[in-house]
Amino acid sequence: MAASPDGELLLLATGLGQLLVMTQDWDLLYEVSLDKDLAAAGSVQLSWRGDGKYFATLVTGSGVSTDVSQLKIWERDTGTLHASGENVPYSQTAMAWCPSGARIATSCMQPHSTSQPLIMSFEKNGLKRDKFQLEGPLDMHVGYLKWNSNSELLAMVVTTKDWIGVQIWSCSNFHWYLKQELRFPSTDELNVLWDPEDAMKLVCWTASGTIRTLRLGWKSAVLDSSIALVINGYSLLVSPLSLAMVPPPMSFFSITFQAPVQVVAFLQDIDRGCLIAARLSDSTLSVVTLPKLSDWLDLEGENHTARSISVLSDLKQSISELRHLTWLSSGALLGALSVQPGSDKVGISGNFSGTQNGVFWQTYPGSREILVEVDLDIVADKPSGIISDGCQIQGVQETPVKQAVISIIKNHAPTSEQNADAFVQLDDGSVVLYTESQAASQFGRTVIGKFARPCPWMSMLQSGTGNVIILGLDEKGGLEALNHCVLCRDCTSFVIHTAADSRSHLLYTTQRDSMHVVSLSDPSTLSDLLSKQEVNMRPESMGGRKPKGVAAQEENLKVRPLWERGARLVTALGGHDVAVIVQTIRGNLETVYPRGLVLGAIAEALKQGQFREAMGLTRRHHINLNVIVDYGGWRSFCVKASEFVKQVGRLNHITELVYALNEENIVDTTYKNLLPPFPESPSPGDAATELLKSQLTANKVQTVLKALRLGVEKEIPDGPAKELCILATLAKSRPPELKEALQRIKSLREAELQGEVAVELEAAEQAAEGAKQKVILSAEAALKHLLWLSDAEIVFKEALGLYDLHLAAMVASHAQRDPKEFLPLLKELEEMPSHLMQYKIDVRLGHYESALQNLAQGGETNFNECLQLMMDHAELFPLGLHIFRESNKRVDILEAWGDHLVQQEKFEDAAAAYCSCNKLQKALNSYRSGGLWRGVMTIAGQLNLPRSELVSLASELGEELQAMGRPAEAACVALEYTHDIDSGVRLLLEAREWMEAVRVASLYSREDLTTSLIEPAALECASALIEEFTEGLEKVRKYLVRYQTVRQRRVSLAAKLKAEEDGEWPDDDTVSEASSHLSSMSAYTHGTAAPSSVTTGSGRGRKNSARSQKKAKGGRIRAGSAGEEWGLVEYIRGMAVSSRMLEEVRRLLSVLLLQGHYPVAHRVQSSLAAYQNDQKVALESVEKDAEADNMQVVNPPPANSTAMSTPSSSVAWRLAVLDPTEGDCK
């Protein structure tokens, strides 16, 4: 009889071979016929698939010579036969279909066989899938089978003459493992049931009333020395992962016990090697001592049989049901034991008999748990093989616990604050210290912390700062640090990697199938960890946003996706190894090397100066080789370059570094925050080191390659490979040092001509072994290598630059250039004289200085060509003067240089050149062309021009200066040379030099000019300024009001859009207060309007300025346009009064007061002060709003604008006499 998973249908098999399918109301749905003969003579097993869509029948009956069984699959709705399996010659006593539907497990036993039963599994189509044989006594019989809810574990009730029990099996990597065996007295009847919701909970109960609930969990048994242990029934599979990556069910060797293993504890002891304690299902204890890893080579493939410790019956009860077995030391074990409240018998069932002895036994009424400490006496020290005898139990100490024990871990780093041997976690998540041989009353007094949830998986580590951190993983996936914070909320497994320098890394996997690497030695991460704040170490914690730039590279190195779904971490090989062992869901072992761990190992090797180890790690794991140079600074590496070459030794590895070298500091970009800081050690003070440091340049690539080249030349013996490495350092330098490389190739060619044995690179090693004389690299092979590294055209030019035509021809031929192109050129050059050949080559290559020097070697006969070359390339004039410094051709060079400077409009320099060669007329023309009137009149005096010509020249200069907009200088010329007082005063008034005009009129006693010219012009200018400042004041106020209106409209619109996105409608008050948060939604924040000035001058200067403003602004501001707000901001800012204008106003005010026009002066100063104050207030308001909106208001004016050329606030323009109420003010 079997009910469907949903409880709607019931299967009934009758003795007549009929299968009835009935509903909940006992109505017959349909009836099918089974094999009547088999059903009548044997038995029928029924089982439903997890979804209830199919059910299976297994009929076992007697055949001709043996029992036969047949499996059939039926459809639920119609009872149609879906599939039928073949007859198997076994009697099958139990069947169970796993909830996932992948397997149908059956127990099989061959009649008259002396072997244990078989468990055979079938597919849905009735075909056999796999099988395995049970382990145990020969009289073992399987009662029934039960799958857990996720179909990963198979529980079976087995019966022998001595006991009845339940075995739990698991399949991984196509192998079935016996993971647990629980035994009960044979006189009892046992039943088991898996929890339908919690796949790892199994309930066992007996007819005598004993109920046991088992909470199962997977734990990785890996020692600190990377020795992995796997429970496989009676055997314990042992594999040293650091020596051999052996995936289970294979192993390096195995240990067989007298009963199935239930609990394993392991300890790495310095004196005794590896200690393994196994608690067996027959309530015995076995201790095995393994030798050190260096002595394991002889153990490969062995199967050692372990003996159990001889235990008294009283003591046997204390260790029969120990859980969480943990080594406290090499002589003590600690475990947890469950008891019934008020019972004086140890063990949850309470029906084991045994005498009670005061030494080993004690009653704890009301206790739920007992911590049992087992003291051992291990005789053997430093074994050379596997030892399982010589261990005795000296005694047992028991400590009562009020709560259930969740986990126990050994304290590997006792401190003054936590000086205990173990950490014990109780059912409420609290962690308690336990010390070996402590009194029972002392336990529970020292609670060091509490997890938010009970964490069955617990581990401890010691950070670089000495802090002891206890990590726990709960069943919900929460990874938590005790007393601190939650590290991850979807963790599936975690391990701790401790490097050789004691730096620790936390590695954990998530349900998103990604592996994270977190440095617990990083001060920032550790401070977050100790501050009890949640550490965001997952990219999904960024709200879906992916980091960019350096942050993205850093995140990619800290997070690694797992290639197979459901993979779990097994262990991380510590010390100098950086391998992380991952077990896939199907059971295979894979090795990964996270970049975070690899970089830490590289950093440690570089700190210790182990360049060979660092080079091997970078090459093996494809790390950017620049990290070797950049970590610790490339200048420090240059000092150690010879040591680097000496340690690495292999030239191909050194050449790889040469090829990978670049200017980027990889430590600050790609590997930022992933490497520990390099310790600052005092640099050696020897003279050689200081000299080398003083020769270092700012060019990283060039300097490092030079240091490597010197190291190779010093540490590596001569040979072809060495020569190629040196050529690579020259070719990869920045800029490439091709000239030196070609010189080396030239030296190789000369050595070949002298009889040296030269070989190609491929035959270098064989030639070096077979030849007794020195072997060098052939020049042809060296040239090919150089051409492979560099641009062939550049190499050809550099070869020409050496003036070696044969080498140039060799380069051209190997560069596959057209002979019709380079042979005529080389032939033409070969026929020339030496200096002309070099000149032609230099001109062709653009080496004009060298070309001039080579051409000058031909003497003055080539002077015209030299002069033409200098005129074509003006930078050669200084060199030409130096070459012909003792020749009369120097005058011609200076005159030609002056002509060139005139063409370049460098008139003052040209005049100086003409003066140097006594070409005064040309010097005068140059000064005049440049508007340098003082120089013109000085040269005119040197030429002794007549008075009439001098006056005429001065008049012309005055007109030219006035046309250039330089009236003040024109006034000086008119007053000093033409003595035209009227014109001079008018020009000074045009230049707004009011006081100077009054001074000149007084100097020459021309009071009529003061009344007729100066006073009317000053009053006119004052009137214009008052009108301009009044108009500007109105504009400032108008633009400010418009700006406030536009801004308020923009803020209201932005608030409305945000409210629509959030689904809420704001009120008016909300809209008015939203400006400081919504500026990024405005189109006005990207305007390009340029600043302007409205008061930069008067007269012609103001007109020119106004035209430049209009051109810079690009026209008027359009109302309602996207850039209106920004344009208004820039316009208000550009209306500031320039410092030049303020100085002009101050001079005007002084003249007005001198002429007695106090009211007019007062109006000018008042109007300017009012305008300046309103403009300043408006600008402060605008900039305050823009700062709140994160708008960049500061936009410098164009270079040709006079606005804000000098801060107006720094110019003292106001006269105190015109503003007596404010005293002495600006």
TrEMBL record:
Domain of life (superkingdom): Eukaryota
Keyword Cytoplasm attached: yes
UniProt record, GO biological process: tRNA wobble base 5-methoxycarbonylmethyl-2-thiouridinylation
Stored InterPro entries: A-sol_ELP1 (IPR056167), Beta-prop_ELP1_1st (IPR056164), Beta-prop_ELP1_2nd (IPR056165), Elp1 (IPR006849), HB_ELP1 (IPR056169), TPR_ELP1 (IPR056166), WD40_repeat_dom_sf (IPR036322)
Example of a GO cellular component annotation carried by this entry: elongator holoenzyme complex
Residue ranges, compositional bias (Low complexity): 1072-1082
Pathway it works in: tRNA modification; 5-methoxycarbonylmethyl-2-thiouridine-tRNA biosynthesis
Region of interest (Disordered), ranges: 1062-1118
Domain (ELP1 TPR) ranges: 838-999
Domain ELP1 first N-terminal beta-propeller: 42-197
Stored Pfam families: A-sol_ELP1, Beta-prop_ELP1_1st, Beta-prop_ELP1_2nd, HB_ELP1, TPR_ELP1
Major location (coarse): cytoplasm
Ranges for domain ELP1 alpha-solenoid: 595-829
Compartments it resides in: Cytoplasm; Nucleus
Residue ranges annotated for the ELP1 N-terminal second beta-propeller domain, each copy included: 230-570
Key words, A-Z: Cytoplasm, Nucleus, tRNA processing
Domain ELP1 three-helical bundle: 1008-1170
GO molecular function: tRNA binding
Ranges of Basic residues composition bias in the record: 1100-1116
Physiological role: Component of the elongator complex which is required for multiple tRNA modifications, including mcm5U (5-methoxycarbonylmethyl uridine), mcm5s2U (5-methoxycarbonylmethyl-2-thiouridine), and ncm5U (5-carbamoylmethyl uridine). The elongator complex catalyzes formation of carboxymethyluridine in the wobble base at position 34 in tRNAs.
Family of this protein: Belongs to the ELP1/IKA1 family.
Name this protein carries in UniProt: Elongator complex protein 1
UniProt organism field: Ceratodon purpureus
Taxonomic path: Eukaryota, Viridiplantae, Streptophyta, Embryophyta, Bryophyta
